Amino acid sequence: MERFQEDPLKASPRELSTPRLLPGDQWAPDCSAPVALDRPLSLVDVVDLALCANPQVKATWAGVKASAASLGEAKAAYLPTISAGISRVRDRTSYPDSDLGVQSLQDTSRNFGLNWRLFDFGTRSANQAAANALLDAALATHDATLQRLLESVVGAYFDAQSARASWDSKTQQEQLAQRTLETARRREATGAGSQTDTLQASTALAKASLERSRAAGDWNKALAVLVYALGLPAGTPLQLAVDLNDDSTGVERELAEWLSQAQAQHPAILAARAQLEAARQRVASVRTEGLPTLDLGVNQYRNGRPNQGLPTLQSSERVIAVTMSIPIFEGFARSYKTRGAEAQAEQKGAELLDIENQVLMNVVKAHADAVAALANLGASDDLHKAAMLATESVRRKLDKGATDMIEMLTVQATLADAEQQRIRSLADWRSARLRLFAAAGRLGHLQLAK
Fold this sequence. Notes:
The chain has about 450 residues and is an alpha+beta fold. The protein has ten helices and four strands; from the N terminus they run H-H-H-E-E-H-H-H-H-E-E-H-H-H.
């Protein structure tokens, strides 16, 4: 009963009573549950936080509700309107220039009216079709907002992951530089090394400490940006789970397939198409508003009509009328309204083409980035393995006195660069892969969990 009272014409879509799902999902995050921030958060956890807290998502969902209400209003045009009124009237009349006394009447008047549009030439149906299209556009706009939010959160998340991994790497490099300095001091104490080697090792340690400090600052900055992207209060502490892997699922599809999927299913394109359809229906509505209409009116009056004096006797009046309204001349306003509606439809058509071009261009760029990132991932892994082997080999030689400190510092710098390249390649790959799905409008929890 409550549902009927809120939406008797069933204008609200089914999605309003159930959470809106991401592409390929079977479940939605539970926004009523408290957020547990005392544990490391995976990418899926972070995305769920953003879906529940981001104000843009709430705003577009409110837009869906508003569009559903407009659809209900358009459906209501097919139903009659009924009104009733009651008034207590006291009518006192005096005649100062005559011998007639004061006449006083007091009574209650009642009225009832029913008005029903029986026929038009398509105005109501065009308005309802336009409202339906705008509701579809609102739903698609909400989905497009979700995809943009996911892309933003994914970028901030992997920036934070990359910054943390870089900090870890710089910390390890500082520890390695510390061990190298200790080795240099032992060699100098035994006469196997020179003071120059010790000073070079000290300089390398100071540089490693500085880079580790800078990396810690970058990590804190990236974490603050992520907190803001999630819509959480500034300063909220976050812990991130280790989430850098090299799954290549889905990216091996050809570019033409990605473009075809985006053109057919991307919510931004679907929203633009729905808005174009609404504009076309608006043109039909404006044209038919200038055509004849047929209305039925039923009115019942007791003791006079509203805002009129009381009759001297009790009265009852019933009026039944069928009225045809025929617009003859509106000062050319109808022509200009039609031209304006046609121009708006033309504008929506151009916007659709522009959005299609933007979406497909983003898919092309994202696909190229993903393919390049996947290739870089393998190369960075080879570079990192080779640098680790070289560092271990030079360290053993240094311990045996078979090399000098310069070679050791050189391979350490090479290893640090290789680790940075590996971290960057992992983060770039994960981010590029998910951005490709978002560019195609198909990013959901299934892709986030891989």
